[in-house]
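For reference, the entry.
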Amino acid sequence: MGASVSVPNDDPHYPANSNQATEIKEVSSEVVKDNLASDNSKITMKKINSKTEIPAAIIKEDSQTAKPVPLSGNRSAKTVGPDNKNSKNNDKLAPPLPHKYNCIIQEADTNINQSELHSHLSSGILLNQKKQATVQKYWIDDSGCNCFMLFPRSLAITWAEDKRYWHWPSVKESSTSDEMAIEVAELLNVCWLEANGKLDISKLTPGVKYDILFVVMLKNSAYGWEAPVNLRLVHPDGKIQQREENLQVKPKSQWIELHVGEFPTPPQPDDKQEKEIQFSLFEYEDGKWKRGLVIKGVILRPKK
């Protein structure tokens, strides 16, 4: 009985176009054995390409025992896994350092451990607290952009040093790497409310739109806020944004944010020329005496 010798279609040696395959003749198993034993005998050949011909019986045997070849073409190729050295090194890459951080942290009140720099910057660092001048908090957000909070000692507040009008209690600022007490400005009684601040925009991350916000609290004993307060933002080029905020509808005895405006930093800052952004909270046209407003500071952070 004759046996039909065929080549599996999934054999890697099988021609892509089946029409190109040379016809395979039937031969008996005895003939195959005898022919393989004889050097001068001829058996049906399978044409693989224009240059190579091998016995069809051998093709069948090889196709049954062949093992899959890796896509690389190398049977001994190894797969790169998570244990690879380069992979480990990539996981340990430090995040990029923020804009001008080295100049900014020179004003820090405490020594900064370089090995924990990113942790310190994420938690927040107090600047100039011990000098009692331009007291600020500096930190970076999740995207690595610089953020600042200017506390009341950094602001120009009308009659701030007159104890009849303003009181300076201390509160704990726990959102920093080292918890410290900072002074806030509590309004006792004034008819002319005015608080102004400014910041060099070169400290802000380039090419980012920033929000500017006053952080304040109204005490339960607050009065005289029938007229809305004014919030003003002056850009380095002189452009002015101004809006009003009605404090009477705001919750009391908790910190709230009053949005002053927004400001886009230039993509390429000019460090040779200092440019400042100015912000104000004021109300003096109404002429009424006011009480119970506590100013914690001004936040400059990337717009959410």
